[in-house]
């Protein structure tokens, strides 16, 4: 089977530093690392003031960085042969485009705190396009580097906000703040219950082994796209629903009352997903607080997928195939995770059935003529930090 091995942090750091020496000459001032993430439950509600329950993965991005005294920025990555060079003053919405936007955008967002130019080399084990937040891992590792190198003396909330602005304003992806929050706030062995309305967080113990389960991450290898307008359309629909209901958030609304105030079927479906998904996150947190990560949690995950597929319409044939195959093979539950339209799914599986589930997912994809999935380890890991 196609398993993505976890790359030790020291190897990631060595890879970033080696690329730095090759591209720029000399040594970097340091190397910083930030993780990718998987969202256990709570999809497409971070930008709706909801609750989300992500945790950090052991797959991460390392950046080797050297500060500059001028305003020039240079960036290279082991994942592309397209280096980028630009001036801090030229960065703005849509400029630069592509992967460099996530680096340049962070510098742009922190410019008023005293950031100047920098040379940065990137090496990552977070699969790009998988919906596992490779962009936030890059943003947050670089934001932490800038904080250290320019002695910004700001707390992580400022760095989180800068990373969100980079993604929204420069890269043009209208995402919420879940990914950046977990990259900066993750705690090993825990999921993070993030309240996207007030920004408060609570660490939730996530000991799957104690429940005799494992969480399987399935990268469907169907490209995950968030900047093609689909994400923005979903946000626009919610804004329309807010206006028609006379509210600023769907949080705390009764589902029946909310949908009774709407006429358009699409808006009703979008609102139904958000309100029901917030409740599923609350129930999931309650289960994990009790140390329960079996059938009941699985049922909530499967219900989440059905809602994302039918009401929010962000699934794909690849994601549906992975979820359906997981359930056929005995998983307690399964769902798409991330923004959808491709990317990854997750399955909560009894430990003894992992191989059977993996085999069924791979067989189902092959039978349907879909890309061969890649399987990842899901161990709740720690947050962004300086490696050396």
Walk me through the topology.
Layout: E1 3-4, H1 9-24, E2 30-39, E3 51-52, E4 54-67, E5 72-77, E6 80-87, H2 100-109, E7 118-124, H3 134-149, H4 156-170, H5 178-185, E8 190-195, E9 201-205, E10 213-222, H6 230-245, H7 255-260, H8 265-289, H9 295-310, H10 317-328, E11 333-337, E12 343-350, H11 354-367, E13 374-377, E14 385-386
Parallel strand pairs: 1-13, 5-7
Antiparallel strand pairs: 2-4, 2-14, 3-8, 4-7, 5-6, 8-9, 10-12, 10-13, 11-12
Helix pairs in contact: 2-3, 2-4, 3-4, 3-5, 4-5, 6-8, 8-9, 10-11
Key terms:
6-stranded mixed beta sheet; 388 residues; globular; 14 strands; 5-stranded mixed beta sheet; 11 helices; alpha+beta; 40% helix
For the CA atoms, what is the radius of gyration?
20 Å
> What are the low-pLDDT stretches, counting only 5+ consecutive residues below 50?
none
Which descriptor suits the 3D outline? globular
Number of helices: 11
Would you kindly provide a written description of the structure presented here, covering whatever features stand out?
A hairpin with a 5-residue loop joins strand 8 (190-195) and strand 9 (201-205). Strands 6-5-7-4-2-14 form a 6-stranded mixed sheet. A 5-stranded mixed sheet has the order 1-13-10-12-11. A 3-stranded antiparallel sheet has the order 3-8-9, with helices on both faces. It is globular and about 55 Å long. The protein is of the alpha+beta class and 388 residues long. The two termini are 35 Å apart. It is built from 11 helices and 14 strands. Helix 3 crosses helix 5 (178-185) and helix 8 (265-289) packs antiparallel against helix 9.
């Amino acid at each position: 089977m196609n398993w993505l091995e976890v790359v030790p942090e020291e190897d990631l750091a060595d890879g970033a530093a080696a690329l730095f020496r090759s591209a720029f000459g000399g040594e970097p001032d340091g190397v910083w690392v930030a993780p990718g993430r998987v969202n256990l439950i709570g999809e497409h509600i971070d930008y709706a003031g909801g609750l989300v329950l992500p945790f950090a993965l052991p797959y991460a991005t390392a950046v080797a960085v050297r500060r500059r005294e001028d305003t020039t920025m240079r960036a290279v990555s082991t994942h592309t042969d397209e280096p980028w060079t630009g001036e801090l003053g030229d960065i703005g919405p849509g400029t630069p485009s592509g992967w460099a936007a996530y680096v340049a955008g962070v510098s742009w967002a922190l410019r008023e705190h005293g950031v100047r130019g920098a040379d940065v080399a990137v090496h990552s084990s977070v699969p790009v396009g998988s919906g596992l937040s490779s962009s936030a891992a890059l943003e947050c590792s670089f934001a932490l580097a800038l904080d250290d190198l320019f002695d910004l003396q700001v707390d992580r909330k400022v760095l989180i906000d800068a990373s969100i602005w980079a993604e929204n304003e420069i890269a043009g992806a209208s995402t919420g703040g879940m990914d950046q929050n977990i990259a900066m706030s993750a705690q090993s062995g825990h999921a993070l219950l993030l309240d996207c309305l007030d920004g408060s967080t609570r660490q939730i113990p996530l000991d799957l082994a104690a429940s005799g389960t494992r969480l399987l991450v399935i990268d469907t290898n169907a490209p995950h796209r968030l900047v093609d307008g689909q994400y923005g359309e979903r946000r626009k629909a919610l804004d329309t629903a807010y206006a028609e209901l006379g509210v600023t958030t769907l949080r705390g609304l009764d589902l029946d009352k909310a949908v009774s105030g709407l006429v358009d079927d699409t808006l009703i479906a979008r609102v139904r997903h958000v309100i029901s998904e917030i409740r599923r996150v609350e129930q999931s947190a309650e289960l994990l607080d009790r140390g329960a990560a079996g059938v009941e949690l699985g049922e909530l995950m499967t219900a989440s997928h059905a809602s994302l597929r039918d009401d929010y319409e962000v699934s794909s044939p690849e994601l549906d195939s992975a979820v359906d195959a997981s359930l056929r093979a005995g998983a307690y539950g399964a769902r798409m995770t991330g923004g959808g339209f491709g990317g990854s799914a997750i399955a909560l599986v009894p430990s003894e059935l992992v191989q059977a589930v993996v085999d069924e997912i791979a067989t189902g994809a092959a039978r349907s003529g879909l890309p061969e999935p890649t399987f990842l380890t899901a161990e709740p890991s720690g947050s962004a930090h300086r490696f050396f």
